[in-house]
Amino acid sequence: MLKNPHQKYRPSPVISLPDRRWPERQIAHAPRWLSTDLRDGNQALAEPMDGARKLQFWNLLLECGFKEIEVAFPSASQTDFNFVRQLIEEQRIPQDVTIQVLTQAREDLILRTFESLRDAHSATVHLYNATAPLFRRLVFGMEKAQVVELATRATRLIREQTANALAVRVLAGNLLLYRTGVCAGDLRSGGGNLAALRRTPDDHQPARHRGGQHPQRLCRSN
């Protein structure tokens, strides 16, 4: 047995940010509330909800007053895909409510996601990409530059799909870029993703459709 077991753990890296101001800020108004029970919560269940249960939960969230609801991972299962279609086709989404869907940074999954969103009056596309070294090496088999290119390519495809009237009619389109595996990664990899996205500003400009403007928002992890 180790005499000093604490020595087997590496200390957390020190991040020098002397100009940071956020620790002194105070919350002066309510944030944007988003429910992810139907997606992340459902994903955590041993037995995921079927369409009927998801619809019951959806109605409950509306009664609670949520205006942004992450409803599904439509490219991951037919049940999730069908649920998004049901909400849209049966006009169950109030005009002041925005649904959100999750997708990985893969072309086939992004296209499937937009297929589920056809005729939605508003939607947020939640694009995620793992940047932790373990994911990059063992899952993706990629270097940092390749992961950056993957995120950039996926962002460009989402913009193209949003601008395509045949793909999805979106009056208010949002893009949420999220890097997962942060606790197992390093901050520099995330910075590389954002740097690449800044180098392609045209990919994030509001798309225009039938004279209307899509206010696309690129939400970045801090």
Automatic annotation (TrEMBL):
One of its GO terms (molecular function) is 2-isopropylmalate synthase activity. Residues 31-164 form the Pyruvate carboxyltransferase domain. Keywords: Transferase. One of its GO terms (biological process) is oxoacid metabolic process. PROSITE patterns: AIPM_HOMOCIT_SYNTH_1 (PS00815). It comes from the Bacteria. InterPro entries: AIPM/Hcit_synth_CS, Aldolase_TIM, PYR_CT. Residues 195-222 are annotated as: Disordered. It catalyses: 3-methyl-2-oxobutanoate + acetyl-CoA + H2O = (2S)-2-isopropylmalate + CoA + H(+). Belongs to the alpha-IPM synthase/homocitrate synthase family. LeuA type 2 subfamily. This is HMGL-like protein. It comes from Raoultella ornithinolytica (Klebsiella ornithinolytica). The lineage of its organism: Bacteria, Pseudomonadati, Pseudomonadota, Gammaproteobacteria, Enterobacterales.
